[in-house]
Inverse folding.
């Protein structure tokens, strides 16, 4: 699946696009406004995406319960998988999206690795019930949590699993906010059975993320995914904005492809126009 094309195209950022459309940027929208989620997925499928990611980013039990949200974990993940599957209509792959818990492992926090693994394994089971084709564990800032999620998914399935982390700098071998380097990440994730590794979101521009792709390529033969934001986040008043043009965004992604990325998409602030520019240049 991950090696069948020179470049495999993913969709764009979900949360910021839903907010731009006036829709609640949450997994709960799978249940409260499924038509809006279906339309979002259909738009990318019609644009030419090869892979759609379910709207289930923080729909794991630890995240939901810590926010005291009244959400049925099974139903919201099933709905997310089914909506993406309906939009894909056998033309795209459906990746079950798994994001972080929002909590820290011991000794920085109160959670044990076993709790994280059980948490992610539960979400993986529900997404499998919804018939996803593969998984993407994304926006992780702590390699330990990423490994917990990967171990959890691997305990449930042999389907492809991509794992991406969010980076705060390109120096020192590329670093997450927790200090994990691309070298450390690539070697650890490959050892634990990742099908592909990469980067998404974070504090980097698309061109800087292209540097992360190059650093990954020095340390692994696994496929590499990059999903940059539409430029570095900027604060305007109380609002975080991303104002990079589709053309500049695509230029950064194309550099990432030259540096070794074979899987590409977008994260925060990206729109259909941003991904369309990528698809046109890379095909």
């Amino acid at each position: 699946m991950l090696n069948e094309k020179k470049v495999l195209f993913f969709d764009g950022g979900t949360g910021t696009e839903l907010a731009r459309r006036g829709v609640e940027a949450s997994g709960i929208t799978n249940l409260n406004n499924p038509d809006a989620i279906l339309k979002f997925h259909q738009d990318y499928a019609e644009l030419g995406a090869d892979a759609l990611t379910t709207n289930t980013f923080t729909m794991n039990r630890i995240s939901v319960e810590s926010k005291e949200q009244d959400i049925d974990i099974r139903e919201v993940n099933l709905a997310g998988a089914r909506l993406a599957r309906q939009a894909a209509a056998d033309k795209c792959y459906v990746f079950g999206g798994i994001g972080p818990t929002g909590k820290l492992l011991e000794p920085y926090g109160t959670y044990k690795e076993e709790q994280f693994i059980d948490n992610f394994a539960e979400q993986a089971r529900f997404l499998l019930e919804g018939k996803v084709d593969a998984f993407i564990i994304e926006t992780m800032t702590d390699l330990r949590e990423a490994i917990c999620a990967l171990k959890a998914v691997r305990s449930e399935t042999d389907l492809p699993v991509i794992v991406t982390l969010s980076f705060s700098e390109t120096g020192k071998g590329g670093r997450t906010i927790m200090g994990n380097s691309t070298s450390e990440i690539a070697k650890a994730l490959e050892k634990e059975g990742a099908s592909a590794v990469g980067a998404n979101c974070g504090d980097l521009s698309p061109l800087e993320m292209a540097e992360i792709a190059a650093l990954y390529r020095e340390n692994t033969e696994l496929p590499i995914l990059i999903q940059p934001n539409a430029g570095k986040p900027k604060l305007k008043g109380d609002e975080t904005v991303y104002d990079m043009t589709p053309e500049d965004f695509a230029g950064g992604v194309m550099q990432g492809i030259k540096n070794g990325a074979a899987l590409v998409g977008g994260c925060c602030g990206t729109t259909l126009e941003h991904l369309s520019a990528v698809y046109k240049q890379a095909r």
About this structure: The two ends are 18 Å apart (CA to CA). The chain has a mean pLDDT of 97. The first strand starts at residue 8 and ends at 9. The first helix runs from residue 15 to 20.
